[in-house]
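Step 1: inspect the first sequence and its tokens.
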Amino acid sequence: MRVITGTARGRRLGELKGQETRPTTGKVKEGIFSALQFEIEERRVLDLFAGTGQMGIEALSRGARSCVFVDRRKDAAQLVRDNLAVCGFADRAQVICGDAMGYLSSLRAQFDLIFLDPPYADDTLERAIAHIARFDILASGGIIVAECPMDKQLPALSAPYRIHREYRYGKIKVTVYHRDGENEDA
């Protein structure tokens, strides 16, 4: 697993052992960042359910201002710290070892770009999306990128949130939500 492009291009990222964490595949990551290529620079990013941290690290490599990484596993949080150090991004990042939903409940900040890729087995993704919208965690003009199995139907949200686009990569679906800006029509 490597950083695709940007200032850390080609840097190899460490991976977690075992089957508990399912990293985003290279093909899916390339597709996501191709779709977001003009939406990253100077953005405040949240990599919820961070795992290895590869999505937030890729965003930092492409010019994101900062990134907060959240994962409940201590080994994952340490791996994110190690991967940030390898890429030279520790000064632009914060790593939180804790429950993602608990973190969202205590959050008082907004983010411009949020990556969501929780375990597929339950409704955590749907709950996270609903919580982000309900408590306005996404900044005006912001983007949520949600990865899930192809057969999962994600919720439509009420204005100012909307599903912008869905992408399909084999058995994986990526849903991109936008939060309309102050001067945009829904």
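Step 2: inspect the second sequence and its tokens, then contrast the two.
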Amino acid sequence: MTTIAYIANEFPSPLEPYVIDEITELRRRGAQVICCSGKRVSPNGLSLEERGFWKETRFFQPLSDDELLQAARRLASDRHCLWQLLHPLLWERGVSPGRRIRTLGHTLMGAALAEQLAPLNVEHIHAHHGYFASWMALAAARLLGIGFSFTLHGSDLLQRADLLSPKLRACQFCVTVSDFNRQYILRNYPATPAEKIVVQRLGVDRVFSRPAAAPAGAEDHRRFCLLSVGRLHQVKAHDFLIKACAALRDQGLDFICWIVGEGPERPVLENQIKELGVEGLVYLIGHVPRTELANYYHYADLVVMTSNSEGIPVVMMEAMAHERLVLAPAITGIPELVEHQRTGFLYQPGSLPDFISAVSWIQAHKASLAGIQHAAAASIAASYNRQRNLRAFAEQFLARIPQSEADYAHPVLQQIRLSV
């Protein structure tokens, strides 16, 4: 049985259901998967399934004094490995002093991860996202003498590529979610062997029935309804959407806009809604459980995305699977998902006039766009089926862990080989 440690910055997270999906699929194929999280998360707000994973997860922030001491001893006991880890912190270009200091702390956390995994015969470590947990995975794998891999989505590659060069050099393989990302990596990190970078798309379930219950505010559905689903974070650029709503109001469009999600930008967005006088048009719905999102998709006329950075957004996949019209910026891997005027609509990134023009045109022609809605659902069923893509992920993942790596991870097998 292959034993894998799987780590994310924060796990389990309702915002990243695909992490649980991948762990579950690997286990279904007989792998033993040890769940790890860089940060300690609260069980409050987690679903029953997520709580089950929370109970088994090993958390590494904050570390106790004893754990820090043991981690420091492990690092000090292997000077060659310590130098391999410290070298990029000292000499890698384009890394701020603050980032170097934080990564030194993440190196200690990686040593603590190695301490916990050492007696468990772990054969491989995988990190989801390229944030600090991926450095922990690299450090732990080096200390344990095993391989590591990681998954890159969007911002972790395009906006916060922290020490990505040494991670790409050290990893056995890197999974990413779009052809755009793969080409970006090979173009910007040319020393990376092309065979290391694997494109594996995410996916969603097919929609077989429509929800019966209407969400709160559906009595306003006589008006054209815009829907945005995403964390209230600067990268999602909800302020752009609210500005657009004010302009659409000024043009006389009769509409409402639901923004589903929670996050640190809520106070800023609330103030903006008041300042622009769109309180009766734009509603910050807050967090909605994934089981209830279908209601919002069903009652929306147009699902919009205004992000500054994305991988290939699952939100767009879900909306298209529900046969909703979608409008998104033509950035990164989004054009691989949304084919302009065939399965949805794209607008020029950052262009408020282009966004407003697109919304106005779609509202005026909505009655004639059923063909695009059907094509969107068919495209998702063909290329972004969750179960099929999970199977492909697990097959590629397990095939890329060398058999010799698994064998040498077991002391008994090592002795057998040495005696032959």
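Step 3: confirm your contrast with the notes below.
Residues 404-420 have pLDDT under 50 and may be disordered. The domain at 3-203+385-419 is CATH 3.40.50.2000 (Rossmann fold).
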